[in-house]
Amino acid sequence: MEKQFNSQENEENRIAKIDKQIFILSGQSNMAGRGVNSHKKIDGILPPECQPDPKILRLDAHLRWVEAHEPLHADIDNKNTCGIGPGMPFTKAVRSQDPSIDVVGLVSCAVGGTAIKEWEKGAHLYENMVKRAKASIRCGGEIKVILWYQGESDTSTQHDADTYKANMERFIHNVRSDLCLPTLPIIQVAIISGDKAWLEKVRESQLGIDMPNVVCVDAKGLELKEDDLHLTTEAQVKLGSMLADAYLKNFVSSSPC
């Protein structure tokens, strides 16, 4: 039994020390994923873009590197039923288009139903994201980008919508400062669901952010589930590809044509 434990510990240490390009996945439910959900046996019906790959790792809730499997946020957004999000399709698309990218480490941080004020510096969600991001590079690796899909919870009141842009810009400034990465790329998604009264105001804020190394991918046109809030599995796969194109175009200068 002790020999088995030592072998497992050695394997965890080996994985932790592998040089990795690290992608942080954060925001609310559409980043955590609500596609094919974990109440179903998803192994046999996963799209190819969501199948596991030994070169794609994930930092679990205990800050250990493990092979990434859908749903990526099951132990992070653990009060909700998680399914397929854009993280795995994004990663596979990036690796397929840029062969120089070898091992990738995904850091899941998204939690469903959360407003931007819950991601303020000092708040639990923000501090946990920073803690996980710092833990991800403790034994090697480099944080390359934050993928951010959030805002639906800020469409309920005029105040939340009106202050969204300033709050998001403050979030970007704070996370770059706390990670000591002043030019860290951020790719945010312009939302397509939420309370119709202030949805367009939040979208306008997201599309209007003009900061260095901040890019916005518009989800408009992607299919929603029957709940009119969450992206379908097919839409999540498409979004992952869109995010990959934005990442390679804007932040990987040597990406192939």
Automatic annotation (TrEMBL):
Superkingdom in the source lineage: Eukaryota
Keyword set includes Hydrolase: yes
Record-annotated Sialate O-acetylesterase domain positions: 20-249
Presence of the UniProt keyword Hydrolase in the record: yes
This protein's UniProt keywords: Hydrolase
GO molecular-function term, one example from the UniProt record: hydrolase activity
InterPro entries in alphabetical order: Carb_Esterase_6 (IPR052940), SASA (IPR005181), SGNH_hydro_sf (IPR036514)
PANTHER family hit by this protein: 9-O-ACETYL-N-ACETYLNEURAMINIC ACID DEACETYLASE-RELATED, ESTERASE, PUTATIVE (DUF303)-RELATED
Name this polypeptide is given: Sialate O-acetylesterase domain-containing protein
